[in-house]
Write a structure and sequence with these properties.
By secondary structure, the protein is mainly β. It is 14% helix and 38% strand.
């Protein structure tokens, strides 16, 4: 083999070794990532982190381990300043839930948090992280959602078709998480207003509500009343969601439409 052929052969060998080394390194990195993800679970403990809508840690969030076999069997814990928690898991099958309290416009709301996994686990340990969501369906209850509920009624003598009504919700100040809300134009059977008397999963905030009837004769503004306070009918109403309580199953508001 002459000098030129030897040089080409040596270069090919080095290239082959380098490629093999890169492949091995890439494979090792993937394996390390998998092992690291598996190693996050601590034997005998439920661990995880809770963050808000911006990814910032939530301190003082309540963590509940609910036994999926035995009724009314719970283990309680909470998150530290860094948003993490570590709870000793007893033998059995457990489901992790999380919530936290948030003060907003003079009221205190208890807010359910969204889990990254909703399957059960045992005392071998598991990682369950939670995120605050302003809206969206909950994984453990097909009828549950993170936003607020608006109950809608019509005044006596008002017989217009709800399909001809458009509600507009204009945010007054920031939403409950501090973010800038958006104006919502709601019609029956849209994303939020799926049932005649129920507008569901609206991001919790303070809104100005207005209503317009649109029919063959044109458009005309409607008046709105707060159903809970029974104040005067107004062309525009400030709407605040009332926190969930012993008699109220969800953060909600209630309005009445009339001419």
């Amino acid at each position: 083999m002459n000098a030129t052929k030897k040089a080409v052969f040596a270069f090919a060998c080095l290239a082959s070794l380098a490629l093999s080394g890169c492949e091995q390194q890439a494979g090792t990195g993937h394996g390390d990532a998998q092992a690291q993800a598996q190693a996050q679970a601590q034997a005998g403990y439920a661990t995880g982190k809770v963050v808000d809508t911006q990814g910032r840690p939530i301190a003082g969030a309540k963590i509940l381990l609910d036994n999926s076999v035995f009724y009314n069997s719970y283990i309680h814990g909470s998150t530290g300043e860094d948003g993490t928690y570590r709870i000793k898991a007893q033998p059995g099958a457990w489901m992790a839930q999380a919530s936290f309290k948030k003060n907003y416009n003079g009221q205190t709301y208890n807010l359910e948090l969204h889990p990254d996994k909703s399957d059960s686990f045992d005392d071998e340990g598991a990682v369950r992280n939670f995120t605050w969501k302003l809206e969206g369906r909950t994984p453990l209850n097909e009828y549950g959602y993170y936003g607020g509920l608006i109950q809608l009624d019509t005044d006596l003598g008002f017989h217009e078709d709800l399909e001809k009504i458009e509600l507009t919700l204009t945010p007054i100040g920031p939403l409950i998480d501090g973010s800038q809300g958006k104006i919502l134009h709601l019609r029956l059977e849209d994303h939020y207003w799926k049932q005649a008397g129920l507008i569901e999963d609206v991001p919790i905030g303070r809104y100005k509500v207005t209503a317009v009837l649109k029919n063959d004769e044109g458009s005309r503004a409607l008046r709105i009343q707060d159903r809970d306070t029974r104040g005067d009918f107004q062309p525009g109403l400030q709407l605040d969601f009332k926190p969930e309580s012993g008699t109220r199953t969800r953060n909600s508001a209630a309005i009445i439409l009339g001419d």
